[in-house]
Amino acid sequence: VGAATTAFAGALATYPILRAGNLVKAVVPVAVLGLLATLLAMLMRGVFTGAALFILASEYLIVEVTGRAGSLSIIAYAVGLVVFCELLLWVGGIPRSTSVDLSVVVERLLGIGLAAPAAAVLAVVVLAAGELGFSGALEGVLVGSGAAIALLTLPWLFLRGRGSHQQEG
Amino acid sequence: MQRTRKLALYGAFAAICLLSSLVAGRPELAALGAPFALILILGLSLPRPAVPQVSMEVKRPRAFEGEEVEADLVICAPARIPTLDLVLLLPEGVSLVKSSARFLLKLEKGEERRVPLRLACNRWGIFRLTDATFRASDTLGLRSADGRCQGKELLRVYPKSERLRLLVNPFETQPFAGNRVARVRGEGIEFADVRPYMPGDRPRRINWRASSLHGAIHVNDQHPERNSDVIIFLDSFAEARQGTASTLDPTVRAAASLARHYLATRDRVGLVSFGGIVRWLVPSAGSIQYYRIVEALLETEIALSYVWKGIDVLPARSLTPQALVIALTPLLDERSVSALLNLRRRGFDLVVVEMSPMAFTRSSGASMDLTAARFWRLWRDATRFHFEQMGVAVVEWEGDTPLVAVVEEVRAFRRFARYAFG
């Protein structure tokens, strides 16, 4: 799992460098930082996972915003980021010298295996909404709904958590 | 129920991507963040992780030091637990054999999982085995239920006893039948002396050869076979400790070994644990007494106390007259030294096995330290000399040499002491 995570991190860090052109000098330090954060996350049981995710995403966005990335690379990168995060959190969650049930491994692999195509399909749908010219209505609805859900999720979870704590008390 | 780091991370990433997409008007950003939002929605719509019930079934609740015990770790799930991270918190004296104490399991609803374990009993004591911490996570690892189980399953590890070929023979015996040849004369097997016939003597005891030689009837005298009372006196006022090693461990092992062998020779053995908490067992014989003593030894601990205690706190029955008192003491506390001297003054047959604390001392090398250490050693020498002057054998034992060597040293001293002081 550690090797797969490192490979994913390497691929995610290398792709923007290859497409960066004259932005290489700006992208390479970010890629190095991303890889360092990944290594630290693996060594420190997932503490730097957030940093690794944000740095690698920023690295890609530098290239993508400047129009150097391939048109469909966003789909692969979205899938790659999801799989990378799942693997990195998995590596951090399994300490050394643990007796691991095989069914746990199978279920986790199955979860990652299902998450990857689902992420790809969702990315395609979002991109298609933009490409098909529904940018005014459908894209707005999609992005707006997503943003609203994301904004409301955290307060909702917070309030639900407090409610359950009060019941327990 | 707790939210995991993953939930916060995915939520933050999805929210930032979608908001940036909205602000910048670029669907690519939404495409990057949407999969994370999807995982969040799916994960939070799934049922929460259940809290498992953890217990331990030990095949044999009693064992000796160095033995291995089979046990089953039983985990029951009231509802489905996709990932259960369980850490078994074993006490210091017990360890797992060829197995990790951490388990990552998946349990279905109502499933009872049994994980076979082999436990190595490394140290004597009473251990509670089922202390464990767990983290049950949901399918996508967004929420977790953390907890700690405190079990009731106890494992009693008895101190291993050493094989002793020789024992310290008590000077006096008791009136009950036993394996020891009494010093007094009476009905027995061992020949003692020849004396003139007295009315009431049994005819079968007539020594015909001596009678014909002296021209008067003479009879044989015998030594009767009697048992003796042995009191094992455990000084639990203080101990010298360094890490996991202490003077108490060999003390308890020696006490168990002595009790076992004296009981095997049909003697009555009692126990006095003299310290912050005073415990005693009235002398008795038989194998049941051995288990009583060992159970009492398991509860021996150093309880810090500044209260002055003399032997007057002990009931008279716990120190039977003419008993041999074997004191196992590090000679660190003045109260125990005083109590032992008091016992000797009261006429008890006393042996002191000094559990040497020297191996546990460390010096910084400063001249003041060295001087203090020297004074301390001189004080210990003076204490030993004081005991020896009173005819008490004092043997220093480091705990790493066989106990039989200590016994032999005591026997040698007592042979010498009988000539010198007897």
List the helices and strands and how they pair.
The complex is a heterodimer of chains A (169) and B (422).
Chain A: H1 2-19, H2 24-43, H3 49-65, H4 73-93, E1 99-100, H5 102-131, H6 138-168
Chain B: E1 2-3, H1 5-24, H2 27-45, E2 53-58, E3 62-64, E4 68-76, E5 81-88, E6 94-96, E7 102-107, E8 112-121, E9 125-128, E10 132-137, E11 143-149, E12 154-158, E13 177-181, E14 190-196, H3 208-214, E15 218-223, E16 225-226, E17 229-236, E18 241-242, E19 245-246, H4 248-264, E20 268-275, E21 279-284, H5 287-298, E22 324-329, H6 334-345, E23 349-355, H7 367-389, E24 393-397, H8 403-421
Parallel strand pairs in B: 3-12, 17-20, 17-22, 22-23, 23-24
Antiparallel strand pairs in B: 1-11, 2-4, 4-8, 5-7, 5-10, 6-8, 9-12, 10-11, 13-16, 14-15, 18-19, 20-21
Helix pairs in contact in B: 1-2, 4-5
What is the count of helical runs of chain A? 6
Which value, in Å, is the CA radius of gyration of chain B? 34 Å
Strand segment tally of chain B = 24
The low-confidence parts of chain B are: none
Outline of chain B? elongated
Brief account:
The complex is a heterodimer of chains A (169) and B (422). Chain A is mainly alpha-helical and 169 residues long.
Overview of the molecule:
The complex is a heterodimer of chains A (169) and B (422). Chain A has 169 residues and is mainly α. The relative contact order of chain A is 0.10. Chain A is built from 6 helices and 1 strand. By secondary structure, chain B is of the alpha+beta class. In chain B, strand 10 (132-137) and strand 11 (143-149) form a beta hairpin. Chain B is elongated, with a radius of gyration of 34 Å. Chain B starts with a strand and ends with a helix. Strand 1 (99-100) of chain A pairs parallel with strand 7 of chain B.
